[in-house]
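Dear Dr. L.,

I hope this message finds you well. Following up on our conversation about the binding site, I have prepared a predicted three-dimensional model of the protein together with D-mannonic acid. For your records, I am including the exact sequence and ligand specification that went into the calculation, followed by the structure tokens. Please feel free to forward this to your student if that is useful.
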Amino acid sequence: MTDRPSLCRSALDSLNDHMLGPAWRDPRIGIVHLGIGNFHRAHEAVYTEEAMLAAGGDWGICGVTLQGDVGKRDALMAQDGLYSVVERGPEGVRVTVIRALKEVLAMPHDRARLFELLVDENVRIVSLTVTEKGYCRDTRTGDVDLSHEGITHDLAHPDKPSTVPGILTAALGQRRDAGTPPFTVLSCDNLSHNGAALKQAVASYARVLDEELADWIDSHVAFPSTMVDRIVPSTTDAERDAALSALNFHDAVPVPCEPFRQWVIEDRFPAGRPAWERVGAQLVDDVMPFEVAKLRMLNGTHSTLAYLSMLAGFSTIDEAIGHPPLRTLVHAMMTEEIAPTLDVPPSFDVLAYRDALLARYANTALKHRTAQIAMDGSQKIPPRLLATIEARMNAGQSIERLTLAVAAWLVFLRGHADDGTRYEINDPMAARLSADVPTDPEQLIETMLSVKEVFPPELANHDVFRRQLVQAVRLIQHGALQAIAIERG
Ligand code: CS2
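The resulting structure of the complex is given below.
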């Protein structure tokens, strides 16, 4: 395997056209992307590559890892930023090489280079996939969390920022001082109203340092919202093997993904953007209906499947959805509890959307690990499940299945499956949430509902919710598989 050469720009000539698309100019960097994980590489980077092939433009990407992951930077840079996307679907495997990624930086090591780019006039978009926790927000107010360790650091050293609000504020301040038009800030995370949420986090951070700058950000910087969708698991050796046999080059950092992709973008880019609409992105005035539908239908049921699976022992989503009672539960949850809360345009067929999701979950080629989705529950549960529960309770409607999902998360926090197998709790609030989780259901709910960062007080104090949560925990404690079946019975 290692006797084959590694992917690099000079190797491209020997690849077939179908792996590359038409001739390639060498674009300058026009996008800095914070959070260069697999998702970005299989989503925005692919759309951007194709948009440049269709319509040109200097929209090369500089990807930044904010966690100091020099290993990732070096692996990608050793391949001149090239990598392959390995699409896995019922029809088989398709490998494409992506060239849009021109440079990779690792913070905090490459801060000087990052700022050189962030103040460069040709950089007109800074996009982000930093996951919910990267926004450093106080979820109760939406403002930046002033007690967050990274934020405290950045406020004390505003010229050496490491957090998203810190980096964006410093860069925007430098552009304002230099008279350079601001870049557009494009959140691509699964957050409700992601553009507005990011704007509030950044502006409230800036306000602590400089009122005028905060006002300038408020009035001059565009933060369009987006809905992003593609299921992108972590890389395994199977993708390295698939890339090698398709390309005849060694790729250390390929990305697996499903064939499906969707991107709905609020069209507000004062400094310009790639022609994403030419390659399937939907540019709209209002992203909200799409975003809420995706968060509640897809991400909500993903989390439900993940926590019930961690307890029941299903390690991938296709395995979980292949268990008939679990499929029935998720189907009913979408049809009866989630879909009625959605306010979508008449052209949006919610039931067809549900069926398409179930088909995507059943993709046996993808091997999307439930443990990957189970990460960061404290950040994911509120927009994915609690918002739906609140909407239904306000309308006096039942919340049975949604509550079962939240209960599964709480029981999951005990750190072991029903058969005793232990797993790690990967969550920024793990220390607080998973230390000594009470065994008594009443006590468990009492303790967890007092976590205000997760459960808004109106919800936490609601009798019906409390009661149903206790009941659901009791059921699940007798075994997740049984709970799934009893609940449906
Ligand atoms: C998943 C998402 O890991 C998770 O929490 O629910 O990453 C999901 O696969 C994507 O949002 C799909 O677009």
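In brief: The mean pLDDT is 95.

With kind regards,
A. P.
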